Amino acid sequence: MAEIVAFVLIPVAFLAGLAAFLPFVPLIAALRGLALVMQLLARFGATLIGVVYRRTPEFRTLPPYRPQDEEVKAYRNYFYGPGFRDLRQLLTLERRSYVTTVGDSFRAVTSRQFTAPTVTRAVTVPYGVALYLGLCLGAVLAPPLIGLLLLLHLLVLTLLTVGARTLAGTLRGVDRAVMLRRRLGSGMICPHCFERVPYPAYDCPGTTCRRRHSDIRPGTYGIFRRRCECGQNMPTLLVLMRRNSRLQAYCTHPSCGKPMNTDAGHMPEVVIPLIGGQAAGKTQLMAAMLLSLEHTAANGGPALTLADEESDANYQVLREVLRMRGHTRATQKTLPRAHSFVLGRGRSQRLVHLFDTAGERFVDRDDTDALRYARAARTFVFVLDPMAVKAFWTSLEPAPGPLLDRTLGSTVDPEEVFARSVQAVAAMGAPLERSRLAVAVSKTDLLTEHGLIPPRPEDSGDTRTWLCEALGLHSLVRAMDLNFREVRYFRTAAVAHEEAGVDASVTDVVEWCLRS
User: Cα(14)–Cα(122) distance, rounded to whole angstroms?
Assistant: First the structure.
């Protein structure tokens, strides 16, 4: 009987059970395959979140873009490298995850159903075979789906990268258009080295950070904001900088690197050099021009704001000396630092640079070559001291009373100063034929007191005639007319009156020089 049970009934029962089980094999295989596919997709999602968002060490296969490794110490924008780096990491991690997940699934089935079953193998082996079929099916179906997701990720990343870079380029174009509108197409003037700076460098605004960023415009390190290595954000466009939060600008010329005006790039710039011989009265005239603008602003005219601390400190000294009718200290022969101020409000604002250069520089050709700021000027002021002209002392009869002190005048011939300075400025590439020249005859208040000069003329032509006929400066006047598009002559008295006012002659010079 035992033999019948062992060799007949049990095999028959096993075959009957196997026959009953076979119809369910496709279902079991399909479900196990689906489970594997869902498991792989879930792991793909977890990997994607880990790579793109969490960024913990287990999701890192490539070295990150670190600010300390960059030429500019700032974090890269995601669409300028990190995005495709994440895609490469995702591909590597997903390949590893696929191999690990499929291998673990097969090993789990082998262990539970074949090598170490909890029940008889007669039951577990058929079930294990069905699971094997399902795992094979899932292992085949998952890669196309994951590949499709990776392709979709690549497509979205590519579109966003193209969009981000197009936006950055557009913003740079807008910034460029704004600069052209402000007549800064060739750059901003450095008040120290006088070179044109296409775009300044800026220090990080962080209170404890002194990292300098050479080009903050939209691009590799940010679209609207740049994040410094210290974590501080800074704007990428000049138009995004409010006046009370503008960053300190620095010259990018290799031999300079000094601070520029904080208003540089935010408004049109005007450069006005004062040219003249030693002791011709340039510094006093410049101080009087600033005082005239200050007085005009106090009476409802265009607002005047000194552009930097150094300009403000120098002006305060000059103003007090001018009010006391004292003599300003002789300008040092070192390269001048611009006296800069902001004139006007809103869209009418202009950043004006006045350059007062030592008269000795207009005698030596090697010194005039250093006056690079003249390349950016379109209006020049030539300060002409009549006391420096020999004909002044021979053609004019001295008035009764104390004699005029000859030591108060310049010792350099105006014709020599003009010839050398024009030659140097033209050699630097300044378009003199498109520039204007204001000829300021200085010290007329002193000459008037001694009766050595006629009363103040009504117009520029009278002064021009006086220079030609009384002082014999026919060749100088002719040279001025030939070299400049427009020449205007003024008799000036760089003195201050009550209530901080200045002589009307200085106001006329200022208005003409700043005329658009």
Answer: 8
